[in-house]
């Protein structure tokens, strides 16, 4: 294996430490505590785990953490009322509605009811538009984490060829916008792309956000390229014992690491950066709401 491993776990710890330091200063100098509210509808086990870990890390960096746990059959009206009260609460600077929502709730309607200034997931249509037009916005956490790691590794990204595999609204599209904002030449590939391996071979930066285990192979990678693997896929691992599973990314790690210049592992790559960036976004939202400067190095 030749590639440098980009350690997302260590990087995320550094980002959280930066956030904590800034939060400490806000408290000391302005008597301000950033607040993050997470709304969970229903009891999806994976969402439960995310929400618990978000709450714990929010408190660890010195922020206020609020959780609203609503029944799975909560009406749209009641959910919108909770969001309205959080929009109006001056102690809350970030609101996150845990997705997916139960089927009877209109996800777009719910997300677009969040005050865009508090939309720390960056999914509100206003933030999508602001990012798309290169204006100051709240940026989705996973692509922001990828961008931070890429900037840290490369310094300037200007002029590099970037291929983003996947065009989802939460990862692929905002990732492409961010790379374009940093002056990469960006290609977005998807399930209809012709000769995907050849498209990927042209990339100095590959971001894989597909949801297909180990799809991107080493012989698709240009020697020396940087590979960011967003994928989180759980595979059966009978070798670890009955009923055990293991996590793999969308990139075939071993073959890609033999060719790439740098690569993020799964687990321990992009995953930990997502929550770190949620905290960074909450801090940014608090600073903007109080007309204080943007926290340096923690925004796009
Ligand atoms: P989506 O399912 O919303 O999007 C997947 C994209 O991959 C689509 O654009 C699809 O194309 C494309 N695609 C599917 N099959 C192929 C193929 N054979 N060749 C090329 N492109 C293909 O997924 P998400 O963007 O939400 O997530 C992607 C991955 O990232 C998942 O593994 C998810 O678990 C992970 N993830 C990780 C996060 C983290 O914190 N690390 C956060 C969010 C997601 P088309 O549009 O044509 O259908």
In short:
This protein is of the alpha/beta class and 300 residues long. Helices cover 40% and strands 16% of the residues. The strands form three sheets. Strands 1-11-8-7-5-6 form a six-stranded parallel β-sheet. A three-stranded parallel β-sheet has the order 3-2-4, sandwiched between helices. A two-stranded antiparallel sheet has the order 9-10.
Can you offer a commentary on this structure?
The structure is a single chain. The protein is of the alpha/beta class. It has two domains: 30-115, Leucine Dehydrogenase, chain A, domain 1 (Rossmann fold), CATH 3.40.50; 141-271, Rossmann fold. 40% of the residues lie in helices and 16% in strands. The protein has a six-stranded parallel beta sheet. A three-stranded parallel beta sheet has the order 3-2-4, with helices on both faces. The protein has a two-stranded antiparallel sheet with strand order 9-10. Helix 1 runs parallel beside helix 10 (270-289) and helix 6 (141-154) runs parallel beside helix 7. 45% of the residues are buried. NADPH dihydro-nicotinamide-adenine-dinucleotide phosphate binds at residues 142, 165-168, 170-172, 189-193, 196, 209-212, 230-233, 250, 270-271, 274.
